[in-house]
């Protein structure tokens, strides 16, 4: 954590995580080659990345204040970080808790099931230390969850953004409750690329996001492609695999073991879509279902 003019800024390590999580807000501070710098006369959203000045290469990471980063987590990533004061612990009276905003209020669009986290030791000396630790833990949650590209709502598994784009290219046009934002927010509803929202008709900035089961059924009914998910054992370890059938003799099998049924299911759907698109069968279908 860095301080300047009574403001507390994210540490360099947390700023790197923030970049990885997709922070794009306009701010006037950044780490330049590891040193906190400020741009007095302009606001920049392009601090993150490599820039060249007089042929010299510099590495930049946006460095918002703790308050701005906390608000970004709440408004964009829908994780609310609360700092709590415990007067019974005099030496380290501050603790943080993290809540999934959408789960908390029952309006579920999230990638994370209900979350409440505290630190390993539980308490911090200052409010700002707890605040930074909470932001960092929130970012770790988001990035860890992002390794699994599928989104979950309740007990339903939805295709990833990459898969949704492939489905659209292959002609998928069935009715869906949810969709992914594919254009950054400007004068549109708040959101960033990849955010799962309720489907909005007649706009060009969303792509439909069916459940894995709906996508699998569409392939079977409209493309005559069967995706079968199988339970396999690798030694004593239970894993999952898939087989894609296209016609009687055209078959694609993957022997790699997946940890979950849904991971193998999504991989099989992706393989089927790649087979379809490779053969140029991406006609648009207006099923209206």
Present the secondary structure layout:
Blueprint: E1 2-4, E2 7-9, H1 12-21, E3 29-32, E4 35-38, E5 49-53, E6 56-62, H2 66-75, E7 79-85, E8 94-100, H3 101-105, H4 127-146, E9 151-153, E10 156-158, H5 161-170, E11 178-181, E12 196-198, E13 206-208, H6 212-222, E14 225-234, E15 237-246, E16 250-258, H7 261-278
Antiparallel strand pairs: 1-2, 3-4, 3-6, 5-6, 7-8, 9-10, 11-12, 11-13, 14-15, 15-16
Helix pairs in contact: 1-4, 2-4, 5-7, 6-7
Compact summary:
29% of the residues lie in helices and 29% in strands. The protein has seven helices and 16 strands.
Report what the structure shows.
The protein is α+β, with helices and mostly antiparallel strands and 289 residues long. The protein has 2 domains: 2-146, no CATH class; 156-278, no CATH class. Helices cover 29% and strands 29% of the residues. The protein contains 7 helices and 16 strands. The protein has helices spanning 12-21, 66-75, 101-105, 127-146, 161-170, 212-222, 261-278; strands spanning 2-4, 7-9, 29-32, 35-38, 49-53, 56-62, 79-85, 94-100, 151-153, 156-158, 178-181, 196-198, 206-208, 225-234, 237-246, 250-258. The strands form 6 sheets. Strands 4-3-6-5 form a 4-stranded antiparallel beta sheet. Strands 12-11-13 form a 3-stranded antiparallel beta sheet, covered by helices on one side. α1 runs parallel beside α4 and α5 (161-170) runs parallel beside α7 (261-278). The longest helix is centred in the middle third of the chain and has 20 residues, at 127-146. It starts with a strand and ends in an 11-residue tail after the last helix.
């Amino acid at each position: 954590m860095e301080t300047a003019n009574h403001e507390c800024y994210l540490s360099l390590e947390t700023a790197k995580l923030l970049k990885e999580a997709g922070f794009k807000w306009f701010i006037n501070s950044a780490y330049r080659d590891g040193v906190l710098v400020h741009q007095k006369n302009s606001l920049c959203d392009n601090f993150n990345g490599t820039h060249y000045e007089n042929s010299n290469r510099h590495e930049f990471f946006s460095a918002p204040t703790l308050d701005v980063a906390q608000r970004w987590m709440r408004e964009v990533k829908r994780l609310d970080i609360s700092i709590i004061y415990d007067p019974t612990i005099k030496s380290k009276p501050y603790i943080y808790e993290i809540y999934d905003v959408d789960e908390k209020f029952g309006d579920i669009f999230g990638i994370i099931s209900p979350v409440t986290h505290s630190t390993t030791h539980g308490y911090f000396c200052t409010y700002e230390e707890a605040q930074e630790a909470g932001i960092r833990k929130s970012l770790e949650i988001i990035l860890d969850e992002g390794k699994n590209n599928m989104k979950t709502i309740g007990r339903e598994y939805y295709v990833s953004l990459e898969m949704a784009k492939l489905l659209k290219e292959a002609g998928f046009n069935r009715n869906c409750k949810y969709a992914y934002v594919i254009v950054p927010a400007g004068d549109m509803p708040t959101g960033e690329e990849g955010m799962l929202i309720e489907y909005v008709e007649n706009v060009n900035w969303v792509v439909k996001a069916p459940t894995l089961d709906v996508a699998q059924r569409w392939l079977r009914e409209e493309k005559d492609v069967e995706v079968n998910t199988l339970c396999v054992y690798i030694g004593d370890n239970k894993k999952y695999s898939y087989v894609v059938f296209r016609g009687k003799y055209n078959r694609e099998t993957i022997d790699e073991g997946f940890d979950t049924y849904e991971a193998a299911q999504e991989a099989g759907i992706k393989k089927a879509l790649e087979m379809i698109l490779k053969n140029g069968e991406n006609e648009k279908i207006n099923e209206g279902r």
